Amino acid sequence: MLTEGVLAGPRHAADEPAVPAGAPVLEIRNLSKTFPGVRALLDASVTIAAGEIHSLVGQNGSGKSTLIKVLAGVYEPDAGATASVRGEALALGDGKAAHDLGIRFVHQDLGLIDNLTAVDNIALGFGYDTAAGGRIRWRAQRERAALALSLVVDDFPLDRPAGTLTVFQRTALAIARALQDFGENGSLLVLDEPTATMPRDQVEHLFTLLRRIRERGTPVLLVTHHMEEVFAVSDRVTVLRDGSIVSVEQTADLDTPRLVSLMTGGVHRKLERGAGPDLEQVALSVRGLTGDTLKGLDLDVHRGEIVGVAGLGGSGREEICALLFGAEKRTGGEIAVDGKTLPPNDPGEAVTRRIGMVPAHRHTQGLILSESVRRNMTLATLTDFVKGGRVQRKREAAAVAEHITAFGVKTASAEVPVNTLSGGNQQKVVLAKWLRLKPTVLLLDEPTQGVDIAAQADLHQLIFEAAAAGTAVLVCSSDEMELARISDRVLVVRDGTVHAELDSGRATPHNIFAATLGTAPDDGAAGHLDEDLGSDDRTAASPTLSSSPVSSSDPVDGE
Amino acid sequence: MTAPATTAARSKGSGPASGVAGKASAGSRILQKLAIDRFSGVYIIVVLVVTFCLWIPQTFATQANLRVLLASQAITGIIALAATVCLISGVFDLSIGATMSLSISMVGVLQATGGVNPIVAVLISLAAGAAVGCINALVVTRFNIDPVIGTLAMSAVLAAVSWWVANGETVLYGLSPTFVSFGDIVLGVPAPIIYLAVIAVIAWYVLEHTPAGRYLYAAGANPVAARLSGVNVTKLTWGALISSGVLASAAGVALTLQLGTAPFAGGVSYLLPAYAAAFLGSTQIEPGRFNVAGTVVSMFIVAVAVRGLQLRLPDAPWIADLVQGVILLLAVGFAVWARRRRIARG
After folding, report:
1. Do B249 and B96 form a contact (C-beta atoms < 8 A)?
2. Domain layout of chain A by residue ranges
3. From A419, which residue of chain B is nearest by alpha-carbon distance?
4. Of A233, A259, B10, B158, which has the highest C-beta tally within 10 A?
5. How much of chain B exceeds pLDDT 90, in percent?
6. Is B33 exposed, middle or buried (0-12, 13-18, 19+ CB in 10 A)?
7. Exposed / middle / buried, residue A341 (Cβ in 10 Å: 0-12, 13-18, 19+)
8. Nearest CB to A368: which of B3, B218, B288?
9. What share of chain B is helix, strand, coil (3-state, %, to 5)?
10. Is the pLDDT of residue A59 over 80?
11. Residue A45, H or E segment
């Protein structure tokens, strides 16, 4: 088992070359996990070697999260699974045993306390450095925090509340905290989708941090949805599909289309746009919209049009949907829907006027996690089923069953709590809630955040269908690829106002990203990401991109 | 893949499987029919009743005891529903005990000293409960004061008001005989248990079958997401707190007509049993959420246990408090444990 150099998964050992990276650190063999009626993992075997960054990829529901949760001790595996860390047996399903063997987890929500500083957050869960009488030795504690942070990142602001840090800084803080007692016995850092909510311009900082950890000899297991990240940082990649491991590959031997086809089983979804926008009719008209960071935003969205909004963190992009819907109070500006003024700060009125909003944070804002799929889907349109003051549950259930099929929601039933669904399917439920309304205006804030490529394609198709049916769609997203793929035009927000407008011909990921930085698109400004991204066919139409190498393969539409 | 395909098939539980698997699924089918997880409370009541009937037949297994049990639980049940409605909406109302006291004082003093028509006295008392609910709602939604603190403070204020209304005296005489007759035995059961049944059915219908109930559950579980789905969460909080005020007042009225006297601080001791029933109720019938049927069932578990032990240990007046406290802790502990188990098992 521990023979040096033999690292590939058992089914591939024969036809794959030995990996030179180092000795196996974590070995999991024959891991299965069955939930009532669902096989989440089937006979999965994974090996992580010393000094590697190892990506674990797969679509939502492929078993990635289950694997991580079994390793972290949240779930108990089915009988028969074995695991070892540096040759020492690890009881799967036991969180403390994993911790004792030096496995550290940084989960997607990071687990920071927003109103505490880095010093306090570092102490959480590991205890404070105390003197006699229980007094906290603040100076020593501070030094400990500074040391822990210095191992992963330079120049960290120790005294700012965690809530005021950037997403990257928060992630770095969570990683430093997880690794602080790592020492010589540390064996593995597991990161669960660390970039899901991270703005693009900060992702490279995270990669630098991960390489630094790797250089210290600690392997990193990175769970991710993003192709570009797999290629940018990882040495090897394990691909899960439908609960089974389909491939373990050297990243260098792979390219995007091959990886996508491994993940999806070769099934691509071709998006169909349907009818185009009706430029005669303005459905949503916004003048001078002002909030915390927005300073007088003007925009129009026509019936059947999909307008994308790009912008860096702090540009004001994050506020737009919430202000338009009335979730947050606008401090100025006029909003008109179908020519009629919309009052501020009244989501109930917005729903009455057939405005829907998919918020950026589906767990806290989009869904009622403990309630069933059915109840979540009909929450905004419950009155459709009311007769004589009573909710007609049979009619409701029938409608929900139809939506589940039509929107391709994978769920054990309509009655299970929505938190049992995978991220992509949860997001379909949020979108279904609003599509039920047959909205005049649909506001989408990061509609495919933390969602795999197949579910993303499904969601994009649903958005296209809504637009074809006449809905005016506004998509605010930090994912330039997404904006380029689905928007009829893209507005770039900077310093609280519209800084540039790119029509569909010019709205390439590269151009969008460059415009968010406020610079004319060129190599330096466009940065690292686009080169790995693989871009859209439309790039050819861009006159400014001649110096930038762009591949023409689209990971979703697949030609 | 070397998949043991049988497991997946078995877990679907369709059709009789062979051998060991068949036996296991037959056993689990029986368990499923019995729905131990949902109806454990009903079974506990049966076990408790049988135990006490065998243990102390001469005192427990009597019609008189049954009537005492039902009559006392009718009052607890009404106020426990007040607690349930608030908890569903995500708000603690700790003033329900004091509101009940106020209602007792008012309905007693209005009749005995004020000579007011009993029906008018009852209506005024219920209106007072609604007014308390309005003030609570104002404190919670407008001034953004934490409901626990806000209603606890309200509770102290109401205790003072009740004392003032009753002038610190229990109203012993002067209640209208017509009024008191509404606490008599009707159709072989104490009338208040019928009031409880009517109130419980209405509450169940509203919470389970009307949009208002659905919105209330949604708002309680995630007020932000509910608001962003167009639900008026503020209005629901008002509705929940006013309902609990009125229900607490109704419990006070029911207690007064049952006793035939009006003890001005009589509501205080009902606060803990009300919450014990509601929390234990969240592990019953519809596990994982507060619900009317669960509350009623749980209330009877606590009542039977307390009553039986009281009869067995007549020299231990502390037994009721002890049992209620322990059951509340066990109930909440069990609810947390059951949820964790559901998550781990998937």
Report:
1. no
2. 109-166, 278-365+438-545
3. B343
4. B158
5. 49
6. exposed
7. exposed
8. B218
9. 75, 0, 20
10. no
11. strand A38-49
Residues forming beta bridges with residue A341, ordered by sequence position: A336
The DSSP-derived string for A72-114 is: HTSSPPPTT-EEEETTEE--TT-HHHHHHTTEEEE-TTTT--T
ipTM of predicted assembly, 2 dp = 0.81
Per-residue tokens: A99: 């911790």
The residue among A110, A186, A485, A180 whose CA lies nearest residue A308 is: A485
Six token digits for residue B95? 């003033």
Strands (DSSP E) found in chain B: 185-186, 189-190
For residue B291, give the 3-state DSSP assignment: coil
B230 CB neighbour count, 10 Å cutoff? 25
> Could you please report the per-residue DSSP string of A238-302?
EEEETTEEEEEEEGGG--HHHHHHHHHTT--------S--EEEEEEEEEEEEESSS-EEEEEEEE
Tell me if A327 and B1 make a contact (CB, 8 A cut-off): no
Domains and CATH numbers, chain B: 38-336 (1.10.3470.10)
Which tens digit of pLDDT belongs to each residue from A312-338? Answer: 878 889 999 999 999 999 999 999 999
Structure token digits, residue A116: 């505490």
**Structural Rg of chain B based on CA atoms:** 23
Distance CA(A37)–CA(B10), nearest Å, equals 9
Q: CB under 8 Å to A337, separation ≥6 — which residues?
A: A283, A284, A285, A353, A354, A355, A440, A441
Distances (CA, A) of A67 to A58, B7, B341: 11, 19, 18
Tokens of B290: 């507060």
**Mode of pairing for the β-strands spanning A278-290 and A295-303:** antiparallel
Q: Could you tell me which residues are beta bridge partners of residue A247?
A: A239
Nearest C-alpha neighbor of A318 from the set A516, A165, A152, A493: A493
User: Using alpha carbons only, what angle is made at residue A182 by residues A227 and A87, rounded to the nearest 5 degrees?
Assistant: 80
Chain A environment of B231 (Cβ under 8 Å):
348, 379
The CA distance from A133 to A144, in Å, is: 20
Domain A278-365+438-545 sits in CATH at 3.40.50.300
Question: Rounded to whole angstroms, how far apart are CA atoms A209 and A200?
Answer: 15
- Per DSSP, the three-state class of A337 is strand
- CB spacing of B345 vs A35 below 8 angstroms: yes
Return mean pLDDT, chain B: 85
* Chain B partners within 8 Å of A78 (Cβ): 7
Q: Which amino acid is at B202?
A: I
d(C-alpha A444, C-alpha A451), whole Å: 14
**Is A390 within 8 Å of chain B by CB?**
yes
Q: What is the pLDDT of residues A413-457, one digit of tens each?
A: 999 999 888 888 999 999 999 999 999 999 999 998 878 777 888
- The angle subtended at Cα A520 by Cα A516 and Cα A522, nearest 5°, is 105
- Please count the other Cβ atoms lying within 10 Å of the Cβ belonging to residue A369: 18
CA neighbours closer than 13 Å in the CB half-sphere of residue B299: 31
CB contact under 8 A, A386 and B211: yes
A367-376, A439-448, B184-193: which range is least confident on average? B184-193
Instruction: Please enumerate in sequence order all residues whose Cβ is within 8 A of that of A155, keeping only pairs 6 or more positions apart, or say none.
Output: none
Q: How far apart are CA A241 and CA A235, in angstroms?
A: 20
Q: How many Cβ atoms from other residues are within 10 Å of residue A271's Cβ?
A: 17
Residues paired with residue A493 on neighbouring β-strands, in sequence order: A498
Look at B228 and A37 and tell me if their CB atoms are within 8 Å: no
pLDDT tens column, B304-315: 888 888 888 888
The answer to whether the CB of B238 falls within 8 A of the CB of B134 is yes
More confident call, A266 vs B53 = B53
pLDDT band at A137 (very low <50, low <70, confident <90, very high): confident
Distance CA A509, CA A533 (A): 9
Q: Which residue among A34, A42, A365 sits closest to B224, beta carbon to beta carbon?
A: A365
The tokens for B151 are 């209603």
